[in-house]
Amino acid sequence: MLPRIADSLSFLYMESVKIVQDDTGICARVDSSRGDERVYLPTASLACVLLGPGTSITQPAMATFARHGTSLVCVGAGGVRSYAGVTPAQLTSGWLERQARAWASEEERLRVAVRMYEHRFGTAAAPTGVTLAQLRGLEGQRVKALYRTLAMKYGIERFRRNYDPAAWDDQDPVNLALSAANAALYGVVHAAVLALGCSPALGFIHSGTQMSFVYDVADLYKAKVTIPLAFSLAGSFQPEREARVRLREEFRLLKLMPAIVTDIQGLIDPESPRESAERVADVIHLWDPDLGSLPAGVNYGDEAAGAVDNPW
After folding, report:
1. pTM: predicted TM-score of the whole model, two decimal places
2. Nearest to residue 115, comparing CAs of 242, 263, 303?
3. Per the record's keyword annotation, is tRNA processing included, yes or no (predicted)?
4. What are the start-end ranges of the E strands in 101-251?
5. CATH topology of domain 94-268
6. Residue 219 annotated as part of some ligand binding site
7. Which among 46, 148, 190, 292 would be 20 to 30 A from 184, CA to CA?
8. Do residues 71 and 61 touch, judged by C-beta distance below 8 A?
9. Chain segment 33-57, per-residue pLDDT in tens
10. Do the annotations mark residue 107 as ligand-binding?
């Protein structure tokens, strides 16, 4: 699963289509003046499919996506807002267990949060003894400075980040592009998190939502990818569409998918070895508090026969 998610295309956004499975493969159907048009999808090469408004999908198509480990994320108009994600079942729990252990310990959770800030701003950005409140303040200052620098570069007199789904079409091109690009980034990070078997809900900086960890990881790349991209589209007439098209190319050039997988592993548990290029699915163990992991698919009835009285 890990090599596939790293080598795959990042995402595909679709709206107002019907996704079906036929004898050839999965295709997106749309009724037009030319009749029933079909576009076949490279299912095995997709990390994430963003299902926008007006999209329907059949159960056989969903099952095929799941078999290929492709994540499905239901999103709002323009790719903004993620409502739900479908997780492939053939995942191990190794990295989820590491994530849960780090999240459950206040000391380790703080260390992971500090590593996230250091990843974004350098090791000097998080001096010894710094609190999360201080790190949030430093983050806000750096992001505002980045906004000012890019606004000057692209000749924008004044920029203020504005995200208002209720007045979506009234926003300026930079805000539209930034919201659309961030939403696509969330979908891709969501797919990588699910591919590792981690929980999108157990965030180290964000909390209170099923997407907390996705927001944590996505923040690592915004200053490098989505924010500069959005400002470069200040004069665009179709900022949302151009943002998604150019973002896919950015993902390919920056090799962002394998970077996301590696970064998540390094942030959660920098001492653990990275997964090899072998497929890690379908590895199931039984847990024992004294013996650790035991093989599954084994009948332990004979071992337990003399140890305790059988209550049944």
Report:
1. 0.68
2. 263
3. no
4. none
5. Four Helix Bundle (Hemerythrin (Met), subunit A) (1.20.120)
6. yes
7. 148
8. no
9. 777 788 888 887 777 787 888 899 9
10. no
